[in-house]
Amino acid sequence: MTESLDMPDDRSRESAAAEDVYHRCGFPDRPRAAAFVAALSRFVRGPRGAPYRDAVVWSRTRDDSEAVDLYLSEAALRATIDAFGEPDVLETIGRAALPSACALLFTSTSPAWGVDQADAQLRGDSHE
């Protein structure tokens, strides 16, 4: 039996405000994206992450490569800057412009993850 990781479901997509903004950060492969998501989740759930508890991350595995795009909410971007420094943001888009292939990866109810847990969630997003 598989243990639940308390993942959010896609109903959160409809509840997100249309004016929410997301910042796309690209990763060359799933292991690097998983390492980032795991580190971000531990930071947000840790003592210094309290101001960023409303962080949201959407993910999309690109069809043409092994690359992964992570779409960070404003809170997730601020947490990233505070914890790791300024990321390379490829573009900033509104919630309505998120690609339809995106999967909700991390929300305020998600637990702190290790790399293996984050990788498992991203594998669920991949088109393999």
Short description:
This protein is of the alpha+beta class. It has one domain (19-125). The protein is 34% helix and 22% strand.
Protein structure class: alpha+beta
Q: Provide the number of structural domains.
A: 1
Rg of Cα set: 13 Å
Terminal CA distance reads: 23 Å
- The total strand number stands at 5
Topology as a string of helices (H) and strands (E)? HEHEEHEEH
Query: How large is the count of helical segments?
Result: 4
As residue ranges, the low-confidence spans are 1-15
> What is the topology, as strand order, of the major beta sheet?
4-1-3-2-5
| Overall pLDDT | 86
- Overall, the morphology is globular
Strand content: 15-25%
Bin the helical content: 25-40%
Let me know the largest β-sheet.
5 strands, antiparallel
Note the topology.
Blueprint: H1 11-15, E1 21-27, H2 30-45, E2 57-61, E3 68-73, H3 74-84, E4 89-94, E5 103-106, H4 115-125
Antiparallel strand pairs: 1-3, 1-4, 2-3, 2-5
Helix pairs in contact: 2-4
Keywords, separated by commas or semicolons:
128 residues; alpha+beta; five-stranded antiparallel β-sheet; 4 helices; disordered N terminus
